[in-house]
Hints:
InterPro entries: RNaseH_sf (IPR036397)
GO molecular function, one term: nucleic acid binding
Radius of gyration: 16 Å
Order of helices and strands: HHH
Number of strands: 0
Shape: elongated
Number of helices: 3
Strand content: under 5%
Helix content: 55-70%
Amino acid sequence: MKIQLKGRRFETIEEIQAESQMVLDRLTKKDFQGCFQAWQRRWDRCVHSQGNYFEGDG
Length: 58
């Protein structure tokens, strides 16, 4: 969603809400699954690092 709205200017709160809703309505189940899986990979890396600093997705 952030990528879809990045760099755009809106005149009113209502415009932001309407455009945000359109972006959300276009998301698919596959989009949500991909986000959840990416979040889970980041979470696993945090747990495995045992509190040590790490950088990036690699």
